[in-house]
UniProtKB/TrEMBL annotation:
InterPro entries: Rossmann-like_a/b/a_fold (IPR014729), UspA (IPR006016). Residues 161-302 form the UspA domain. This is Universal stress protein. Belongs to the universal stress protein A family.
Length: 313
């Protein structure tokens, strides 16, 4: 069965990177893609000049500006479609939707996402050219408001052959396994299931020079108990991939230590190995409503630059 994906564009370099990522990542024989772009009513800068620009700007000038904008965006969308078609997606499976802003760019994207999509793709940043800006305004809002389906925030140079799955044996991390396996089973994608066993040291991520033998014994016991709990769960995680027809040679499970922060551990591993796709559950073991986004996913979206972060319910 074909799955439908929504790719939110704004014509920027960052949003076009999403198209290239999707073209390389998604299965070409079972994907339907909608390229979605929201047109502005008028330049945002007009609001900096006039308190009521819709009444102060000549109608002819607004029509001329809107016409130029429409032609520019239509060209961008056609370019995006060509990228996907040239990558092997059937032209009939790549559709374009371009609408005038209704309730706001983010809210219009969310409204469209309710129409039977399997996931939403967006770039980390839009038209902003501020290098130090970690994530754009629209992407930030989507992260906190797209709660019903997976959201993919894409960096500009995301590698597409390796899939790193953050695993903590929570319901959402198991959903990551099932969702990623259902999408990419039968492909040559390499699956890496990673559990970050956080350090007990509160200062530098490593336990060094314990004050007493009793403290060291306590740490060793805790480490042993933790491994006894997570190792069977990791075996079950591999079994989930096998049940979805992922080849044994295309999967591995890893437990690494030495990190106080799981998101840093995931990102550090991805950067060291050159892996470009990271799957995380929207929430981890803690399912408190206040942590709807989850600390791991939230931090990854903020810190990642050249990776695509899949946030899965």
């Amino acid at each position: 069965m074909d799955l439908k994906y929504l790719i939110a564009l704004d014509g920027s370099t960052a949003s076009m990177a999403v198209v290239h990522y999707a073209a390389a990542m998604l299965p070409k024989d079972r994907s339907e893609i909608v390229l979605f772009l929201v047109e502005l009513d008028m330049p945002e800068s007009f609001w900096d000049i006039y308190p009521d620009p819709e009444n102060r700007i000549h109608k002819e000038e607004m029509v001329e500006w809107a016409t130029r904008q429409h032609k520019c965006f239509a060209s961008v969308l056609e370019t995006a479609r060509s990228i996907l078609v040239e990558a092997g997606f059937p032209r009939k499976c790549v559709n374009i939707k371009m609408y005038r802003r209704n309730t706001g760019i983010t809210r219009d994207i969310i409204s469209e996402s309710m129409d039977g999509y399997a996931a939403v793709f967006a770039g980390r940043k839009g038209c902003s050219n501020l290098a130090r800006l970690p994530i754009g305004n629209v992407a930030r809002k989507l992260v906190s408001r797209i709660l019903h389906i997976p959201l993919v925030i894409v960096g500009e140079n995301a590698e597409t052959n390796h899939i790193l799955i953050g695993f903590d044996d929570s319901r959402d991390s198991r959903s990551c396994l099932r969702f990623s396996a259902s999408l990419f089973a039968g492909t040559d994608k390499q699956f890496h299931i990673l559990h970050i066993a956080r350090s007990f040291n509160l200062f530098n991520g490593e336990f060094q020079n314990p004050g007493t033998v009793t403290v060291r014994q306590t740490i060793d016991d805790q480490e042993k108990n933790r491994r006894m709990k997570i190792e069977p769960a990791m075996e079950k995680a591999l079994q989930i991939l096998k049940e979805h027809s992922v080849e044994k040679t295309n999967m591995e499970s890893l437990i690494i230590t030495g990190y106080m922060n799981r998101s840093l551990g995931l990102l550090d591993m991805a950067e060291k190995e050159g892996w470009g796709t990271i799957f995380v559950g929207r929430r981890g073991v803690s399912r408190i409503q206040d942590f709807l986004m989850g600390r791991v996913g939230e931090k990854l979206v903020e810190m990642a630059r050249d990776q695509a972060i899949w946030i899965v319910n």
